[in-house]
Amino acid sequence: MLKDSSFLNNLGEYCIDELKKIGTTNSEVVVGHSISEDMLQRNNKIEEVTRSEDISIGLTAYINQKKSSISTSNLTKDNIKKAIVRCYEMAKNTPEDQYCGLPQDQFLDKDSNNLDLFDDSIIPYENKKNYVSECEHEALVQEKIFNSNGVSFSEVKSNFLLKNSNGFSGGRKSSVFNISCDVLAKENDSMERDYEYSSKRFFKDLPEPKSIGKLAAKRAYSRLNPQKINSFTGPAVFEPRVSSSFLSHLLSSISGHNLARKVSFIKGDIGEILFQENINVIDDPLIKKGLGSKNFDSEGVSCKKLRLINAGKLNEILLDTYSGKMLRKKTNGRCGGATNCYFENGKVTKTDLIKDIKRGVYITELFGSGFNSVTGDFSKGGSGFLIENGEITYPISEITVAGNIKNMFKEMILANDLEFKSRTNSPTIKINNIIIGGK
After folding, report:
1. pLDDT number for residue 163
2. Which DSSP letter does residue 205 get?
3. Rounded distance, CA 275 to CA 346, Å?
4. How many CA atoms lie within 13 A of 273 on its CB side?
5. How far apart are CA 19 and CA 17, in angstroms?
6. Between β-strands 281-283 and 145-164, what pairing exists: parallel, antiparallel or unpaired?
7. What are the distances in angstroms from CA 78 to CA 81, 82, 91?
8. Residues 173, 202: contact at Cβ < 8 Å?
9. 410 - beta bridge partners?
10. 363 contacts: CB under 8 Å, gap ≥ 6
11. How far is CA 354 from CA 383, 386, 394, in A?
12. What's the rounded Cα separation, in Å, for the pair 307 and 67?
């Protein structure tokens, strides 16, 4: 059972008081407790069932402009006292940093909304087992599926509290249920794998298990017998599972820390044109049941909905207290990064994006870390399908997708098939004039 809020609060209060007694000018403590249960089935047999539990304290001590942080999961009273003293001693021997410090009181969250993030129901073992078994069975009976890499299911429930010496105290309970089905397809000498997954705050909101298994199988067998293609420059269409990676690169590039250190291809000036004028990017922490939803960030600063890109122009950057001071701006509650971030839907269907492409590619997988955040150069391996005369045709593999992300952003056309499946979400994206490297 999760530790209740009073337990976390008492522990946090004790740490704040002790840090103040020994000489800190300010302090912060995070107390967290999580319980995780995992199940793995492969080829109709439950291979693994595990349960783990973690409780820990994170301490941050400030002595004027000096700061240190430590954490411990040994919560005996004696060890907590030792950790408090050690944190203080470390701060004394740390160089001064003009930008460090707690957020100002005016930015702290004071009126939290109920975001419906915690499923308090108890899911019996048999229910989880039946869900996993039904998912895998549906995958294995599909055409050309000959083996399973496993169906994994996890349930994570957590409770945490954040307190600081300025009087802020806030916490939240949350739960996440994950299902993933990974299967192998085979035909003649060709063998391919693929997967499908879902993550939800509530068990009852997970898709029907058969739909997960069936889609995993379809994705795997549709990739069989891939062909290699010659290199060319032309349009590429990216399915949502991979198009969201462009959003991740954008978020990294508009991080206040990266902008302050000048390790971003983006200047960071508000109004800077990055996309076509019909493209908007939203970061909304207040979506009910959202996987990234929160009322306050990792510093206790209130989170509000931000329009990061408005009509193609940079409208907000991601700021915490530290990076805000570096850039002489105010925090906007993004310590820890973005929350629920997404490209707003476009106005055309996926079919419309593809129908006028004479020759192009439909990308279903990107791999590799080929993105230079300073120059914007982009080059990643990939696989997917060839597009000919407006139709998705045969599978292709061993290709490279390359260009400069600054140009790619300005070429983007968005479809209207946005779904919220993770913290970062995108509809199908079409980008013209990309270098497709083949044989």
Report:
1. 96
2. G
3. 13
4. 6
5. 6
6. unpaired
7. 5, 6, 20
8. no
9. none
10. 236, 237, 238, 239, 242, 382, 383, 384, 401
11. 17, 11, 15
12. 33
The residues near 309 (Cβ < 8 Å, ≥ 6 apart) are 250, 274, 275, 279, 280, 281, 315
In the chain, what is the greatest distance between 2 CA atoms, to the nearest angstrom? 74
Question: What is the mean pLDDT of each successive set of 10 residues along the chain, which is 439 residues long?
Answer: 92 96 96 97 96 97 97 95 96 95 86 90 96 97 95 97 94 97 96 97 98 97 96 96 95 96 94 96 97 96 96 97 96 96 96 96 92 94 96 96 95 96 97 93
Q: Please give the full DSSP string across 93-124, using - where no structure is assigned.
A: TSPP-TT-SPPPGGGB--S-------------
> Which of helix, strand or coil describes residue 323?
helix
CA–CA gap between residue 44 and residue 191 (Å, rounded): 21
Residue type, 210: K
Per-residue tokens: 246: 């462009």
- DSSP of 400-430: EEEEEHHHHHHHEEEBS-----SSEE---EE
Residues near 423 by beta carbon (within 8 Å), at least 6 away in sequence = 290, 291, 292, 338, 339, 340, 341
| pLDDT for residue 105 | 85
* Residue whose structure tokens are 């302050």: 260
